[in-house]
Design brief:
- Helix content is 74%, strand content 0%.
- By secondary structure, the protein is mainly alpha-helical.
- The chain folds into 2 domains: 202 residues, MFS general substrate transporter like domains (Growth Hormone, Chain: A, Up-down Bundle), CATH 1.20.1250; 201 residues, MFS general substrate transporter like domains (Growth Hormone, Chain: A).
- This is MFS transporter.
């Protein structure tokens, strides 16, 4: 159930490599085709609904993930994780690359919904497998590497899509076919752990009797993760419009800022394990939310492009520090037989937060402007940082005490 010690560090474990490959795919799902959207709108200009459908192509997978991931979690608990992960990757390749040849926007939109279902399968199985295979520091290290893989993978895939979109607006869809190259390793090394006998190597954190209140505490954790992703997703959904309103070259500024965001997030995620061991879970939440608050405060400064780039780096770093803890705490909290469900609900909470972000931030911008949005967001995240220190936030510190020996 845990890592074979012969592999050495966790990143040398081929199962960890396969799970990190799966993590990189999840970032690819939504944003890869973003550079091709103007070209797709021109390509399907005869469609009277082209403007609306093209803009829905990016968030469409998020809606499917939010709806399907909890049910995928139930299936993972009943039928195992290996088949779900492999099926998800195969479906990801088919649905993701379908835009290469589908004849019109409605069918491409439908393929994006199917792509979201594939992502729900992949992320749910991946989260459960991290809990099945690893414990303690190894689990924390891999969860940090997972965030790093998403950031660096997203940077590489979106950059490549930008080059492809210059040739043809359909060509970025071919990038989804990269997932096929990951299948052989996944097929070889990913196996379902035994479910009927206890693991002699398991640590106490995985053998504590099930807490009767775990569902309530887990729900609070999922809500906090949804709120964190809703706040973070202000960046990719509103940043380009903010730069444009400020009178700067929106595509160039946005591309540079998002690149800094991903590089910063990927780099700090690599350090997550060390920082968490030094500060505890309360510490990484406080540092993460504190960095995000600083970033949004800097964005509120008028006509300060250099400060804005520093802000994106701070927000990327803060998100990378806060995010891994959700998975680790949830896997420790959920009983073994419910890890699939826990993975599904966590996956859904991420995409629900992303989907709700523009719905909530746009009215704030209309009422208070971008500076008002950034200042209010900075205030909210500052309160979350303070709450992390004072009360360990609302993750049920007392209920988790028996499972997590040290939260300080």
């Amino acid at each position: 159930m845990v890592r074979n010690p012969s592999y050495g560090p966790v990143w040398r474990d081929p199962r960890a490599v396969a799970l990190l490959m799966a993590a990189a795919l999840t970032t690819m799902a939504n944003a890869t085709i973003s550079p091709a959207l103007p070209g797709l709108e021109r390509l399907f200009a005869d469609d009277p609904n082209a403007a609306m459908l093209v803009r829905l192509l990016v968030p469409a997978p998020s809606l499917s993930v939010a709806l399907c991931a909890p049910f995928a979690g139930l299936v993972a608990d009943r039928c195992g994780r290996r088949q779900m992960l492999l099926a998800g990757v195969i479906l990801f390749v088919i649905a993701g690359s379908a835009g290469l040849f589908l004849p019109d926007l409605p069918t491409i939109f439908a393929s994006r919904l199917v792509l979201g279902f594939a992502v729900a399968l992949i992320m749910t199985a991946q989260t459960a497998l991290i809990g099945d295979y690893y414990t303690g520091d190894d689990r924390g290290t891999l969860t940090g590497l997972q965030i790093s893989a998403r950031n660096f993978g997203g940077l590489a895939f979106i950059s490549l899509a930008g080059w492809f979109a210059v040739v043809s607006p359909r060509l970025p869809f071919v990038i989804y076919g990269v997932a096929a190259a990951f299948l052989p390793l996944m097929w070889k090394v990913i196996v379902d752990p035994p479910r009927t006998s206890p693991n002699p190597d398991a640590r106490p954190e995985d053998s504590v009797p099930e807490l009767s209140s775990w569902g309530f505490v887990f729900a609070l954790l999922a809500l906090l993760q949804a709120a964190t992703n809703m706040i973070f997703f202000v960046m990719p959904t509103q940043l380009s419009f903010f730069f444009e309103a400020a009178g700067y070259d929106s595509p160039m500024m946005t591309g540079s800022a998002l690149g800094i965001l991903m590089l910063s997030g990927g780099s700090f995620a690599l350090l997550y394990g060390r920082i968490q061991r030094a500060t505890g879970y309360v510490g990484v939440f406080a540092l993460g939310y504190g960095a995000m608050a600083l970033g949004f405060l800097l964005l509120a400064l008028p006509a300060m492009p250099l400060a804005w780039f520093v802000a994106t780096a701070a927000i990327g770093a803060g998100y990378a520090l806060a995010s891994p803890s959700f998975v680790i705490l949830a896997l420790r909290l959920a009983p073994l037989r419910r890890r699939g469900l826990a993975g599904g609900v966590l996956t859904a909470s991420v995409f629900i937060g992303q989907f709700c972000s523009p719905l909530l931030s746009t009215p704030v911008i209309a009422a208070c402007g971008y500076e008002g949005l950034f200042r209010s967001t900075a205030l909210l995240v500052s309160a979350m940082a303070v709450a992390s220190v004072v009360k360990g936030w609302t993750m049920g510190l007392l209920a988790l005490k028996a499972r997590i020996p040290s939260m300080e």
